[in-house]
């Protein structure tokens, strides 16, 4: 995901402009990458020829860099993307309290037949009536009469893959022509969710939107490969590791290198980096013109990784069994990332408020000593305290 505000409070465009005049990191030469930065900062940006891959058994040919709309306040940014070949957009009614789907709907006017639209049911919806209501509300907000990919939002285990009532509702919507394909989304226990999609006897779900980036372990990559081979269309999200700003790279942005890393995996059909404004769009879209992951990209990611390691959480959820009070540590950390990486207080609060109070960071106030352990050595008590300060 791309950051909204970057380097010392500047937005990405400002960051890039300063980068052109500034001094690049000692470890990364001011050569081709600096030229790319310069190109992005100029107004003569040339949109690359779109690159397509097939989204699993849906057969949809989608651009490898697609549009994550969750933080985009202006339909114009999406219109420019669609008019330059980007043909897949991902939204959810939950984003911006419903406004995000409306903004996507405005961008789709006159372009609906050129773009595949993916949205999500509400995270808590399981019952038939709730799923149907979610989809009908989304259709109305999006101003369309069909959704290409309807996704069950934010699964953290395989359990919901098998709920008959949910499947019944989705099938009814498909029969009515209101949805075309079924998907799931997952940030936590990604491999378990993907494996459940594949192991489902019905093979009901067509796509999976999964958190995947250069920090992801072999388990996730293996599950992605297995699912893709079973015909599940894989869409990568959280591809840019939270979009945290860092001065460790000098003028160089890690976003393109991070996206290229993900797209090296041929099992990933597309990615949906969040693009808030034109500078984000140009930076991310440019990747389609230079897909090859280079040794320079590798060095950039190494530096970026080192810079964010002290606070980056991969949402693996492995710490949660070590907290005796059932605190939803990974979701709390994801809320923090929305606040501190994406700089979206609204999304951070929406996510945090969905956690029951009994599993929120407030619980830690009555806990005499933190026993929760992070597999990556993060100080969990400190993160929970920060969440209370920022989000409670
Ligand atoms: S302080 Fe640590 S162990 Fe205690 S409730 Fe919070 S996360 Fe769990
Ligand atoms: S705090 Fe550590 S163990 Fe817990 S979800 Fe994050 S990375 Fe995983």
Structural class: alpha/beta
Widest β-sheet, arrangement of strands = 3-4-5-6-7-8-9-10
CATH superfamily of the largest domain: NADP-dependent oxidoreductase domain
Content of β-strand = 5-15%
Oligomer: single chain
Q: Ligands in the structure?
A: iron/sulfur cluster
CATH overall fold name of the largest domain: TIM Barrel
Mean pLDDT: 88
- Quickly count the helices: 14
Q: How many distinct domains?
A: 2
Kindly state the number of beta strands: 10
The helix/strand order is HHEEEHEHEHEHEHEHEHEHHHHH
Q: Which term fits the overall shape?
A: globular
Helix content: 25-40%
CATH architecture of the largest domain, by name, is Alpha-Beta Barrel
Distance between the termini: 24 Å
Q: What's the CATH first level of the largest domain?
A: Alpha Beta
Key phrases:
392 residues, alpha/beta, 2 domains, two-stranded antiparallel sheet, globular, disordered N terminus, binds iron/sulfur cluster
What report would you give on this structure?
Helix content is 39%, strand content 11%. It is of the alpha/beta class. It has helices spanning 12-21, 32-41, 75-83, 99-108, 128-142, 164-175, 190-199, 218-229, 255-263, 278-285, 295-308, 329-340, 345-353, 380-391, and strands spanning 52-54, 61-63, 67-68, 88-90, 116-120, 147-152, 179-186, 207-211, 233-237, 270-271. Helix 12 runs antiparallel to helix 13. The chain has two domains: 52-294, NADP-dependent oxidoreductase domain (TIM Barrel), CATH 3.20.20; 318-391, no CATH class.
